[in-house]
Amino acid sequence: MQRIAYASIDLKALRHNFLQVKQYAPNSKLICVIKANAYGHGMLEVAKALQDADGFAVACVDEALLLRKENVTQPITVFQGFQDIAELQACSQYQLWPVVHHTKQLELLHQAELAQPIDIWLKLSTGMNRLGFNPDDAHDVWRQLDSCSGVRNIRLMTHMARADEGILSEADFTEKQIQLFTASTSGIRAECSLANSATLIGWPAAHREWVRPGIMLYGASPFLPGASGFQSPDLQPVMQLNSRLIAINRRSKGDPIGYGSTWVCPENMPIGVVAIGYGDGYPRHIQAGTTLLIRGQSAKIVGRVSMDLLTVDLSGIDAAVGDEVVLWGTGLPVDRIAQQAGTISYELLCGIFGRVRYKYIN
Ligand SMILES: *Cc1c(COP(=O)(O)O)cnc(C)c1O
Predict the structure, then answer these.
(1) Which superfamily is assigned to 239-361 in CATH?
(2) DSSP string, 37-91
């Protein structure tokens, strides 16, 4: 027997979102970001469904090797690059495109004798200040890489820190990052990539030769609530998270529900029990009033979410034991649940793991 909870992954919606990206950035090549198991959607299945992608991107060499083992042939960008000689050799052997962001990696490149030269991304830090070289050093690092026999094509990239906030009224941060990148790389002839999902929707000037969408492929909004300055993209949710009602119990006025007795029945009422919890990736910290869907009806979750179960107020809801329950998906955006859990859709989506089953449709 399998766990009742399952994530249904709509590959048609995925392809629809992919075409949306193409409409936003018709002249750029598309690197589909499928790190962290494709944001919880299944890396291999997503890669296979996006045959028309010009490339894929993952966080680390291990993730890239999983793709190569399954005969994914497109260029694979590795955002964290190689950490040692063995990973660098793997980049050469499997023709990965690692990001070079640190002097340690320059040393490794100069030391290593690679069977085949590799394409690399030279990453500049223009405002994120996490990974990347100082933009002032762009020309210098570029020359060092260009003189390296193990390096074939050098491409340039940076990453935006605040694009998810939309276009900020004065002194827009993303605009400043674009300007800094452009100024510090002027004179270097190389293909460039600046745009994650939010940037590619809001700042066409950042499209350049390659764009790197992640979250919008999965149909969640790349923007935080309240962000403005762009047209809302037409995206379809790819993941629907489902489980079932496994019990309905009549409780009396004053009965406390669940761990900590944090919620008490205000009257006699039916309480449903759903077979899903934080052990499946549903967030434990949700605001009062967070809902789920049963037979298309919206019902409130009450009491604490526990590891395997959660409880729901079924007053006025037409429901029976065995009914399917939707935790997020069509009609109940994951963005809304994320907001009610004090997080972002990214965290909820890539937090689906382990015992939740996957069903791929379309
Ligand atoms: C994850 C990531 C992306 C994709 O970002 P989204 O906001 O999901 O579109 C792009 N570039 C880099 C460097 C990333 O780490």
Answers:
(1) Lyase, Ornithine Decarboxylase; Chain A, domain 1 (2.40.37.10)
(2) HHHHT-HHHHHHHTTT-SEEEESSHHHHHHHHHTT--S-EEETT--SSHHHHHHH
